[in-house]
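Running this now, will post back.
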Amino acid sequence: MPDRERPRYDERRSPDVSPGEPPAGESFDVGREEPVIVSPHLLVRHAVVALAVVLVVVILALLFDAPLREVANPTVTPNPEKAPWYFIALQELLAHVHPLVGGVLVPAAVVLGLAALPYLDRNPSLSPQTRRVAKVTFTIFLVAWIVLTVIGFAFRGPGWSWVWPWEEWHGEL
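Update: finished.
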């Protein structure tokens, strides 16, 4: 570009859009696929959105009190004592099988099975319609986990006994 004079960069314009060639480096040809520099423009936008979300959460936390119970008393255990929702399926599984099986072997088998799934399902297609092994495996796992979670959450009462939803008992879900 020695025969043409480069246009001067106008500091008043937005740094996102400027006419002519860039002040340094090569001009960008739309036809070529090159990596796009995201710093600082995209990162600043993400930071602004993240700060806005944090601000909204802090304001909501200040306006509404969390429904907390009394201070924990080690001499009084609530009946039934239930795990958080994401572990209640494991707690339900532990109620039916030996703790070694339900607490160690089954979770380890699930993790190892999910790690081995790409080697068992050798289908190179990325289309969900042709990934039968992956779909069946995931569906069985998901349905079993949801069923165990619903049973442990809604159908367990005092002493971890079976309680139908229409039976009256004075506990918390």
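The two ends are 73 Å apart (CA to CA). More later if anyone needs it.
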